[in-house]
Amino acid sequence: MHVDRFDPTPLYVQVADQLREQIKAGELKPRDPLPSESKLVAEHGIARETARRAIALLREEGWVVTLPQRGTFVTPGKSA
User: Fold this and answer.
1) What is the pLDDT of residues 39-67, one digit of tens each?
2) Dihedral of CA 51/1/24/36: which sign?
3) How far, in Å, are 13, 27, 38, 51 from residue 57 at the CA level?
4) 6 in the Ramachandran plot: left (φ > 0), alpha (ψ -120 to 50) or beta?
């Protein structure tokens, strides 16, 4: 996964799009954990706030749910 810094699409939207596609493709299944913010930061070379905004966008769209002190998981029934 990578982000295109020359693309006018905000970086957090690009990251969210990539995670959403992984969910749709079945690479991330219902109840699977999303990569941690730290892992997203390291993989994409983005700021932690950018990773948070990407996850927040997916949460708003209903793709994931965040459980305090447990992590963020793919919402059951939201794949494919």
Assistant:
1) 999 999 999 999 999 999 999 999 999 99
2) negative
3) 8, 19, 17, 10
4) alpha
Helix (H) or strand (E) holding 74, with range, is strand 71-74
Q: How many CB atoms lie within 10 A of CB 34?
A: 23
pLDDT tens digits, one per residue of 18-45: 999 999 999 999 999 999 999 999 999 9
Please tell me whether residue 33 adopts helix, strand or coil conformation: strand
pTM as predicted: 0.90
Cβ atoms of 15 and 7 closer than 8 Å: no
Count the Cβ atoms, other than its own, within 10 Å of residue 18.
16
End-to-end CA distance of the chain: 19
